[in-house]
Amino acid sequence: MFFSGHTQKATKRPYPLESHQMPQVPRSNYFHFQEEKQRLQLKKFLLHRIFLVAKITASIEKKDLAQYYEYVFQSILKHHLGESVTGLLLMYPTSILHILETSSGTLYRILLDYVDHEKNETEFFIQGMKIIVVSHNIPTRIFMQWQVSTVKVPVMYLDDLTESQSLEEVIKEFLTQTHKLALYHFKTVKVNTKGPGDHLNQVAPELLPPEQIIKYLCKSEEFMDPKTFLNMYNKPIHVTLDSEVVWPAPSLF
Question: HSE-up of 189 (CA within 13 Å, CB side)?
Answer without folding.
Answer: 23
